[in-house]
Amino acid sequence: xxxxxxxxxxxKVDRVLRDVxxxxxxxxxxxxxxxxxxxxxxxxxxxxFLQAMQDAGKPIAAICHAPWELVSTGLVRGRTLTSYxxxxxxxxxxxxxxxxxxxxxDGNWVTSRQPDDLPAFNRAMxxxxxxxxxxxxxxxxxxxxxxxxxxxxMSGARKEGSI
Length: 163
Fold this sequence. Notes:
Elements: E1 28-30, H1 34-40, H2 44-55, E2 60-63, H3 67-72, E3 80-81, H4 88-93, E4 97-98, E5 103-106, E6 109-112, H5 118-135, H6 145-160
Parallel strand pairs: 1-2, 2-6, 3-4
Antiparallel strand pairs: 5-6
Helix pairs in contact: 5-6
């Protein structure tokens, strides 16, 4: 396997982005990978979704090359973040402040550099998502897709010893 150039498998999709609204989610996690991020950052539906999440002040977590999606959406100006080192110029050119740390938290964002930083990133992401979840009031007590996914991710991370 050549890191993110070779496909490792397929993931079953419940719904496609054009069929969802940012209002249905409490947070978004943008996974890394050069090919994924470079492809997704130019998709208008991805940009619109991220803009809507940001406009609502919802948590956004991005690792590795995923901040490219935030750059292409026009969201990094004035923000402090990190990423994989090879896209630091893109972040700076878009008006962001790039720093080389395993995790950077800036308001409703948490960013990280690379797979080696996953334990710290997971802790920061879960903390940000859970803080936001506590502050969100729902008219009914149903859990959203993101809360269910967060619970599953936390359970899996605990089993793996990442948190």
